[in-house]
Amino acid sequence: MSAITAELAPERDVTYGRSPLAHFASDVWVLTKRSIARIRREPETLADVTFMPVIFILMFAYVFGGAIVLPGGGNYHEYLIGGMLGMGLAQTAPGVAVALVTDMSTGLIDRFRSLPMSRWAVLMARSIAELLTQIISTVVVVCVGLAIGWRVHTGPAEVIAAFGLALLFGYAFTWAGVCLGMALRSPEAAQQTGFIIFLPLTFISSAFVPIQGMPGWLQPIAEWNPMSALAAACRHLFGNPNPAASVPVWPMQHPELAVVCWSVAMLVVFAPLAVHLYRRKALG
Amino acid sequence: MGEVPAIEAEGLVKHYGKTRALSGFDLVVPAGTVYGLLGPNGAGKTTAVRVFATLLRPDGGRARVQGRDVVTEAAEVRRQIGLTGQYAALDEYLTGRANLIMIGQLSRLTASAARRRADEMLERFSLTVAASRAVKTYSGGMRRRLDLAASLIGYPSVLFLDEPTTGLDPSARAMTWEIVRELAEGGTTLLLTTQYLDEADQLARRVAVIDGGTVIAEGTPEALKSSIGDEHLEVVLAAGTDVEAAIIAVRPFARGRVQPGQDGRRLSVPVAAAEGLTTRVVRALDAAGVQVNDVTIERASLDDVFLSLTGQVSSTEDDRAVEPELEGSAVA
To answer: How far, in Å, CA of B162 to CA of A46, rounded?
Structure first.
């Protein structure tokens, strides 16, 4: 009757023969499904990436927007959405840190590490699940944007390029969140630290207000802030008002290229760092 | 096959900063046995298990599981082992069944095999009814059961149970014991850490007592008991008696450390069985002017072994910080 004996798994039930790459892909898929299952069971976990952008858009469009004058003219509602996309994406980074810290503290990561699975699959799956929430956040921003009068004035190629750049940036930024998760001990600390980093990052940029209105000492920070580059790139590609085009600084003159550079740089720095921290944290 | 020990450690060393969690830890666990690792908080039990489970890299020494080195052949080791820690390592938001299927697939079972095995385990651990509920709705006992099921889903030949019954109520504890016995009968090797001596006594065929990161005694529970004296004298002193004088009076009869009880009126003396011993002890106490209410001879328990070897409760406060995952009451 004992279902639990020291018998080995039947040969046909195990996948040991498959290639490492097939194992990696399978592990990533299993763990990504885990994150999606959580969202399906508790959709309210998406509140921060759905309701928050809506509130921000409405606040800026109807409360602050009236007081903001764009250099060179243009509709603020059309200006806003290019910036909001980046904010919606960056906002998911504290979430990924919280999720990883939680898995660490409950011992789930320890269990994963005692299994014959691919170790990096844990981080990879988390980044992919995060990309999915970022897509949801982007869809929300687009829908609300259309409702408040934002329009695209270019063609499909430009639109695809804009969303592609935004998601590339969002994915790269996720790895910063992964590093944050590895560096902190408690989910609360991850939440707070994430917020402290992401708030100035989005606000000291051209995401909501034109750089020209900022004090001189702050302008270089905003000009080189990757969030400004992303906002400028999206505005340029959508054909929306883009006052940053008149700022004679390299990232503002070449925003698309700047976004690619920032994204690659973040991936090159944060992905290996995340793996290193994971390894170090794990092996003690 | 038979002569390769399931678990082996030679001179394991592990530091956390300046603290030595393991200092020259040796262990041999024959295949198919239940082996108890007994020690106070911070003794190094959890650290040792984490090294065997490939979660920690030792700073020195070697460890092998089923003949495979835990550092250089970690991937091979992971195919063989199951691990259950002190906390249920599960995804709170997934259902019990989804947790098991996930762990099964990550243990390299095919998707259909993982589903089948998950259902088998749910049945065996009486969790079928709760299978499609999120784990966060489970009681503590149910979580532990699911956790144990998860550690078994990949057909491990060696199972590490780190304080499997800490914080469980008596019925959940009894159920865990039953499963351990069943696994042992089925041929699984089990390494069990515990602070509860009766647990080791009940379940383990052999026991290692660990303190300060090293094994200070090893053997069958029976051998350990007889090593500190076959018998064991309980002396109950009258109120207001000088305990020190009583200890000095009984020391010539003792075969180990004389242990004063917590209430200050009780002495526990490991002794060798001998004719007329009680009479002589009472005379000695009387000669020393010690008032005695009761003297009884009892057979030694693992508690006595433990106390005689480790000298009371959890060794140092510092060590406790070393193993933050360790929780639970100290052994009194």
So the answer is: 36
